[in-house]
Structure formats: structure tokens, C-alpha cells
């Protein structure tokens, strides 16, 4: 064993004749056979639970009949897509998905950056630690608990917010059942839950900024605000752009869980999104092909969005995911 | 040290005020739930409880712990979390270790195979059909196997292996006749405790809080995890089982329902609440390691 490795190291690759090279390739393969065995379960997992479903997505173009299975069900072309595009729900679903995604991006994206810049300026270690500990905490609440808390706080009779409104002489608002409030509640509760957690990544980026820049700016008489603006913000710009790409790329991928939990018959006009519709018509209604078509449509849009945004940012700012 | 200008002091003051507001907004709802859970529900409903508990009582907690379904759900959640996390961490190691090795041929192909699934997926329905075909519905495996490993965590762990354990150690062990398995068990894993802790935490919190898989794959109530009962009680307000309406007045029933909600939020988050101060630095560490571009 020891001898083998030595010879391999001593011979530079370029000088090897092809036969010897393929022999050594076979040898490293053989030497590392255990590694292939180790990774095998993970590969099998990805094939079964990620690639087989990609293959199975063909039911979007078929009339899926359970007894015949995915492969033998008859092809129907774009029937399900056309039905979806013509349906009464189409516009509502697209608009809601897009509006929630954009609203979330517009509000939820800048807040953690601001928070990180502010926390970074705190000089008392104790206060810094306190605010970090507290703002990270809601991240660990489950979506069910978060939405449960929304129901508790926004209850028209006993909720604290309405108690306060009454205290100031206003009329109580049934927040959770009014379509007009849905998106705002969705977005701002998301900010409440995740702003601290999302700020961690920016705080980490801020610590890697060269302190000499700050010293130099101080000597030149720059105020704190100016240093934040001209040193810290540009310093974390690459991080901001990467995260922006990822966020823009997932605008149409509005998550199922929270929308589903916040949804009820009264606010459905503004709360129904593609993911909840796929669940309703697919899992509950057992319209597998129709639902798969909608899901595929959504996946493709997300994929195109991500690739496009990545391409633009590569051209404009030389930062990209790949 | 240059003396601070008036502008800088003003900057400081504004910054502290804004952060204090943020602190209050984030913290207050959490405190309120805790306080309300041990207060007289009548006072809570009337809006008399703000910062300190009023007429302390533990009815909510009593009702929660007297409920068989919730306790059963709690036990289920513990089981799913433990089993799921073991599978998750094990699978992550199995993928991350080979991928961290420079002499592992085909690592780019494997990485690409895994990473592609982050950007494109077959979607809910085809995945659901697979799980159904494999006969996993209504078993705990439906909550564990389809989420056996996460790409992002593989990348984090692989990067950790590469950056904090010098490859030379592995090479020299190999020269001394140490096999790949032995290297993993005797060298890599003992040196990787921080990342293993982080992964365990990330995965177990995800299992503890997860609700979607259970919603679509489980129909038998005795297998439900806690989150599904939480949903019924907190959101759908389905509390017939917990409250005997026969003898008591309606008003009292509503009051009890209120205190059950608050108590349940606390109970559901108890493990994390208790461990949070100790775990926090690990969470942050994991997040920061994850931010390193792999």
C-alpha cells in the first residue's frame, strides 16, 4: 500500500502513457471503493425521492390512472395546462403568489440588513448579546405556533391588538378573516420571526471588513453614519447580492405552510396561492395530473427566474451563484 | 482616541432607541404568552394582563397534561425527532465525507446531482405518489425517509471537513495502513464535534417543528405529531375533547379554551426554550459556517 502511493506521487501525470493512467485511475477507484459504498445510500435517496419524481412529472401531460401507473397512463398533451390557464382561479393564484412574493421581498429583504448594520454599531457587549439572543429566538417557533399566536393576538374580541384599538376608541378589526389584511399580516409576521436570524449572515460579513478602512476614514473626519454608508454597506454588498439573487429567484415559490395555516374561507380571495391550490386539488381532490401540471408550471417559472436573475447580476455586478 | 462629535453621539442615541424598539416588539409577544399562560383567563380576555401575571393559576397546563391525545402527540414528536435526526445526520456524514476527499473520483458529478435538486424538483404530487407507492403513508417513515438529508447541510459539512481538517492527516493515516472507514470514524468524526452539534440542532429543530409531511402522509390520529394537534387547537379551535361542556357554563368554557392555548404554546416549545441559552452559539456558528461559499 505504502509503496503504491509513493510511485503514484513520484510520477507526474502528464508523462504517463494512457494505459498506465487508466490503470492508476482504476487503482484509485479500487482504493476508494469504501467511499462509493458510503455515498451509495445518499445517491439512492436522491434518485428515488428527487429524480424519480422528476421523471414522474410526466403525469402532468397524461391522464394519470392509478391502476396503470405513471408510465402506462395515456398521454393527453397540454390538456391540464390549458384547463389551468382557462380556469377562474388562474389569475387569482398568479397574482396572489406574485404579490406576496414581491411584498415579502420589498419588506423582508432590507430589514435584516438594516438590523445587522445597527447591531454592528452597538458598543456595549451586553446589549449587543441581548438583542441578538432575543431577535434570533422567534426563528425557532414552528409555523403552527407562529400562526397560532397571530390568531391569539389579532382576535377581534380578546386579542391584544384589538384591546389596544378599543382603548384608543377605535372599532375592533377582524384581521384574520379580512382579505385586505392577509398579505400585510403574512409579511410582517415573517419579518418579526426571521429578521434576527437573517441578520446573522450580514453580521458575519461585517466582521470581515478591514478595520484599517475605518481608521483611515476616522482620520479623514468621517462621521459614524458616513462610515456605515461608505464602508460597511459596500463591504457587505457581495453578500447582499447573493442573497438577493436567491430571494428574487424564489419570489414565485411562496411557501405552503404559513399561507395554508393562515388561510380560511373568508380570506381566500387574497390568500390562495399556487402551492395551496396544488395541495387542495391534488392531495385532497386526488386530481393528480392536473395538480402536477400546476406544480410543474410553478417549478419552471421559479427555475427561469433564478437563472435570469443570476445571469443579470453576473453581467451587472460580477456576482453570481454559479 | 478622537473625541466624539455631537453628530456621532446623536447617531448612537438614535441607534439605541431604534434597537430598543425592535427588542420590545420581538420580546413582548413572547413574554405575554408566558404571562398569560399562568394568569386567570378571564383577566386575559378582558385585556387586564399586560406585563405581570394576574391571579396566578395553572388550569391551562393541567388541561394540557390531562389530555391523552396531546401527550401521545408529544411522545410521537419526540420519537420522530430522535429517529429522524439520527437518519439525517448519518446520511449527511455519508455524503459529506466522500465529497470532501480530493482523491474521490466523480465528486463533481455527485455534487451536481445533489445540488440540482435545490433548484428544480418534480413537485408535490409526483413525490407524494412515490411515497404512497412505497407504502410509507401512515407510518413514521413517511416523515423521515423522504427528508433523509438536505443538500445545503451536505455542503456545509463537506466544507467543514475540507477546511478544518488538514488532508495531510488523512494521507498519513492512509500511509500507515488506515482504511477509509477507519479514517472517518477515528480521525474525521472526533475532530468534527462542532459541526455535528450544529447539524443535530438544525435537523432536530426542523423535525420538532415540521407539520407538512404529517399533514399529507398521516391520517391516523394516534400517529399525529404534536404540531397537528397544535393546529387543531390554536388555529381551528377544535377543543371539544378537552372541555366538558355539559356542566359548565359557556363563558367558563371559553375561558378555559383561552388558557389552554397559551399553555400549549409554552409546552410545545419547552425543549427549545430550556436549551436555547446553551444552544444559541451553536446555531449561530452553523449559520456562519453555512455562509462560507463552498
Task: Sum up the structure in keywords.
heterodimer; A: 322 residues; mainly alpha; disordered N terminus; B: 294 residues; MetI-like fold; 2 domains; transport (chain B); MetI-like (chain B); transmembrane helix (chain B)
Can you describe what's shown?
Chain B: One of its GO terms (biological process) is transmembrane transport. Chain B: Residues 74-279 form the ABC transmembrane type-1 domain. Chain B: Belongs to the binding-protein-dependent transport system permease family. Chain B: It comes from Paenibacillus ihbetae. The complex is a heterodimer of chains A (322) and B (294). With 322 residues, chain A is mainly alpha-helical. Helix content of chain A is 74%, strand content 0%. Chain A has 18 helices and no strands. In chain A, helix 6 runs parallel beside helix 11 (179-207) and helix 8 crosses helix 11 (179-207). The longest helix of chain A has 30 residues, at 288-317. The two termini of chain A are 39 Å apart. The model of chain A is unreliable at 1-16 (pLDDT under 50). Chain B folds into two domains: 6-46; 59-292, MetI-like (MetI-like fold). In chain B, 73% of the residues lie in helices and 0% in strands. Chain B has helices at residues 6-37, 41-45, 59-66, 68-100, 107-119, 124-133, 141-144, 151-164, 167-175, 180-191, 193-209, 212-217, 226-235, 250-268, 270-291. The longest helix of chain B has 33 residues, at 68-100. Chain B is globular, with a radius of gyration of 25 Å. Chain B starts with 5 loop residues before the first helix and ends with a helix. The chains are: A mainly alpha (322), B mainly alpha (294). Chains A and B meet through helix 2, helix 3, helix 7, helix 8 and helix 9 of A and helix 1, helix 4, helix 5, helix 6 and helix 10 of B.
Amino acid at each position: 500500500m505504502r509503496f503504491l502511493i509513493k510511485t503514484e506521487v513520484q510520477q507526474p501525470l502528464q508523462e504517463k502513457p494512457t494505459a498506465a493512467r487508466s490503470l492508476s485511475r482504476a487503482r484509485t477507484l479500487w482504493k476508494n471503493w469504501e467511499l462509493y459504498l458510503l455515498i451509495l445510500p445518499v445517491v439512492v435517496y436522491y434518485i428515488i425521492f428527487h429524480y424519480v419524481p422528476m421523471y414522474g412529472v410526466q403525469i402532468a401531460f397524461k391522464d394519470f390512472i392509478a391502476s396503470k401507473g405513471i408510465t402506462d397512463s395515456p398521454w393527453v398533451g397540454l390538456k391540464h395546462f390549458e384547463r389551468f390557464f382557462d380556469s377562474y382561479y388562474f389569475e387569482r393564484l398568479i397574482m396572489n403568489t406574485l404579490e406576496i412574493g414581491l411584498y415579502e421581498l420589498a419588506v423582508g429583504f432590507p430589514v435584516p440588513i438594516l438590523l445587522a448594520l445597527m447591531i454592528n454599531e452597538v458598543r456595549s457587549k451586553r446589549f449587543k448579546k441581548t438583542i441578538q439572543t432575543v431577535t434570533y429566538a422567534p426563528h425557532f417557533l414552528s409555523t403552527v405556533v407562529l400562526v397560532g399566536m397571530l390568531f391569539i393576538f389579532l382576535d377581534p374580541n380578546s386579542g391584544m391588538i384589538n384591546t389596544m384599538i378599543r382603548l384608543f376608541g377605535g372599532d375592533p378589526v377582524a384581521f384574520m378573516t379580512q382579505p385586505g389584511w392577509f398579505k400585510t399580516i403574512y409579511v410582517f409576521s415573517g419579518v418579526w420571526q426571521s429578521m434576527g436570524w437573517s441578520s446573522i449572515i450580514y453580521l458575519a460579513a461585517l466582521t470581515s471588513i478591514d478595520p484599517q478602512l475605518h481608521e483611515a476614514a476616522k482620520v479623514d473626519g468621517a462621521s459614524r453614519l458616513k462610515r456605515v454608508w461608505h464602508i460597511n454597506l459596500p463591504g457587505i454588498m457581495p453578500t447582499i447580492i447573493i442573497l438577493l439573487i436567491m430571494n428574487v429567484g424564489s419570489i414565485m415559490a411562496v411557501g405552503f405552510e404559513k399561507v395554508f395555516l393562515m388561510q380560511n374561507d373568508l380570506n381566500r380571495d387574497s390568500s390562495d396561492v399556487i402551492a395551496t391550490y396544488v395541495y387542495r386539488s391534488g392531495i385532497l381532490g386526488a386530481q393528480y395530473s392536473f395538480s402536477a401540471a400546476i406544480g410543474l408550471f410553478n417549478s419552471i417559472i421559479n427555475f427561469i427566474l433564478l437563472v435570469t436573475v443570476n445571469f443579470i447580476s453576473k453581467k451587472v455586478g460580477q456576482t453570481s451563484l454559479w | 482616541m478622537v473625541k466624539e462629535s455631537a453628530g456621532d453621539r446623536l447617531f448612537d442615541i438614535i441607534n439605541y432607541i431604534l434597537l430598543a424598539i425592535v427588542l420590545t416588539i420581538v420580546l413582548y409577544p413572547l413574554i405575554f404568552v408566558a404571562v398569560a399562560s399562568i394568569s386567570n383567563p378571564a383577566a386575559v380576555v378582558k385585556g387586564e394582563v399586560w406585563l405581570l401575571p394576574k391571579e396566578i393559576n395553572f388550569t391551562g397546563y393541567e388541561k394540557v397534561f390531562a389530555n391523552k391525545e396531546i401527550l401521545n402527540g408529544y411522545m410521537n414528536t419526540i420519537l420522530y425527532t430522535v429517529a429522524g435526526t439520527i437518519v439525517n445526520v448519518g446520511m449527511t456524514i455519508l455524503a459529506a465525507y466522500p465529497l470532501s476527499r480530493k482523491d474521490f473520483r466523480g465528486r463533481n458529478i455527485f455534487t451536481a446531482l445533489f445540488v440540482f435538486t435545490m433548484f428544480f424538483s418534480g413537485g408535490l404530487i409526483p413525490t407524494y405518489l412515490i411515497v404512497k407507492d412505497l407504502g410509507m403513508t401512515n407510518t413514521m417513515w413517511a416523515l423521515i425517509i423522504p427528508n433523509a438529508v438536505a443538500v445545503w447541510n451536505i455542503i456545509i459539512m463537506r466544507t467543514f471537513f475540507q477546511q478544518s481538517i488538514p488532508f495531510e492527516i488523512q494521507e498519513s493515516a492512509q500511509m500507515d495502513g488506515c482504511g477509509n472507514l477507519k479514517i472517518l470514524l477515528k480521525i474525521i468524526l472526533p475532530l468534527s464535534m462542532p459541526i455535528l452539534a450544529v447539524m443535530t440542532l438544525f435537523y432536530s429543530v426542523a423535525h420538532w417543528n415540521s407539520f407538512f409531511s404529517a399533514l399529507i402522509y398521516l391520517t391516523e390520529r394516534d400517529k399525529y405529531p404534536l404540531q397537528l394537534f397544535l393546529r387543531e387547537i390554536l388555529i381551528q379551535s377544535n377543543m371539544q375533547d378537552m372541555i366538558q361542556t355539559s356542566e359548565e357554563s359557556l363563558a367558563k368554557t371559553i375561558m378555559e379554551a383561552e388558557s389552554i392555548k397559551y399553555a400549549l404554546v409554552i409546552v410545545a416549545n419547552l425543549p427549545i426554550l430550556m436549551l436555547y441559552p446553551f444552544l444559541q452559539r451553536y446555531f449561530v456558528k452553523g449559520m456562519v459556517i453555512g455562509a462560507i461559499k463552498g
